[in-house]
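Severity: low
Component: inverse-folding endpoint
Summary: output formatting inconsistent between runs
Steps to reproduce: submit the following structure tokens with default settings.
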């Protein structure tokens, strides 16, 4: 979306109107030996990872973000009047024999946009899994430019039930309750630059996607996939999160998001300058000379090199992949470790014992 808006020179207007806020937010592919279900995702410019699901009987197809930073599923409906719905797939309840409507109005707010609509129930299918009578949202309104330029139709949330719409059961919980997966966990492998190769796996872990052993970290608050981080350092000196802080592991966020004053300091350290559009730009030649930024979690160091925390744009300019958390819903000293971090580290989300497993991705 940033790329789309940057090309149309509309990015500055968009970023002014939508400061970053924390979310309040069909190929059958199963390994018969391990019981792991694989859902392929397409990598759009390292900014979003999108998979395909089917809703209804017969299934209607939608592109969704598999998002660990929210807990609800929603897609656009044929009744949606927003411009965003005109250029995305929309769900037609009249074409599904298993559709049930609840009529309950819903409103969901995300870091970069909102959705208003109503609650419904239907069969959801992906990668050979068939989840019956799943609660999901159908949009009536998707205001603003975010959804209009998005490369996905809707969002499939994988955070805890405590974050979902009251009285609904999120998709992952239903997969487990219906006995469709053998282990109460899922895992993400995000490709770097390549469109193909990214995958979210359900019910087990494929060890060929990471090197060494998984380091397990307890979830500090079962709401988001939140953990306690020890510090953030560069060249051995702590530059952020001194004395510890909280971090959310979020597949639905592209960047590394932190408290405003801390992020501004990091931009200064790496010599990133603010551009007209409000983004921080830097000379691409510095990629080879800038040091790693090290995130220490549960006593283990997770280095993020300059090649990861800088993103190459067009015409030899690079952009900083650090961004500041703004707005009332952003937890003051919290970080969001988005796709920039998750491309480097294969991540297992274990609901069975409320832990997050991290290991270097292959």
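Observed output (run 2 of 3):
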């Amino acid at each position: 979306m940033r790329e789309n808006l940057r090309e149309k020179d509309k990015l500055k207007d968009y970023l002014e109107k939508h400061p970053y806020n924390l979310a309040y937010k069909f190929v059958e592919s199963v390994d018969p030996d391990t019981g792991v279900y694989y859902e392929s995702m397409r990598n759009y410019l390292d900014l979003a990872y999108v998979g395909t699901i089917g809703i209804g009987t017969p299934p209607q197809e939608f592109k969704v973000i598999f998002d660990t930073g929210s807990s609800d599923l929603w897609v656009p409906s044929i009744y949606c009047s927003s411009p965003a719905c005109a250029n995305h797939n929309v769900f037609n309840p009249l074409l599904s024999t298993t559709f049930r409507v609840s009529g309950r109005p819903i409103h969901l707010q995300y870091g970069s946009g909102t959705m208003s609509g109503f609650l419904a129930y239907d069969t959801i299918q992906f990668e050979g899994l068939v989840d019956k009578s799943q609660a999901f949202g159908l949009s009536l309104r998707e205001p603003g430019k975010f959804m209009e330029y998005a490369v996905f139709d809707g969002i499939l949330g994988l955070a805890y039930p405590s974050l979902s719409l009251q009285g609904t059961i999120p998709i992952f919980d239903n997969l487990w309750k219906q006995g469709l997966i053998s282990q109460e966990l899922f895992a993400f492998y995000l490709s770097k630059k390549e469109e193909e190769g990214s995958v979210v796996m359900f019910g087990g872990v494929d060890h060929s996607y990471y090197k060494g052993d998984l380091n397990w970290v307890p979830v500090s608050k079962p709401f988001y996939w939140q953990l306690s981080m020890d510090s953030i350092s560069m060249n051995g000196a702590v530059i952020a999160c001194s004395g510890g802080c909280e971090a959310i592991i979020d597949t639905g966020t592209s960047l590394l998001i932190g408290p405003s004053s801390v992020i501004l300091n990091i931009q200064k350290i790496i010599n990133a300058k603010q551009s007209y559009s409000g983004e921080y730009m830097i000379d691409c030649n510095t990629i080879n000379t800038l040091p790693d930024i090290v995130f220490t979690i549960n006593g283990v160091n997770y280095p993020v090199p300059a090649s990861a925390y800088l993103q190459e744009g067009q015409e030899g300019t690079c952009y900083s992949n650090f961004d500041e958390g703004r707005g009332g819903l952003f937890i003051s000293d919290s970080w969001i470790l988005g796709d920039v971090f998750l491309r480097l580290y294969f991540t297992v989300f274990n609901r069975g014992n409320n832990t997050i497993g991290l290991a270097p991705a292959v």
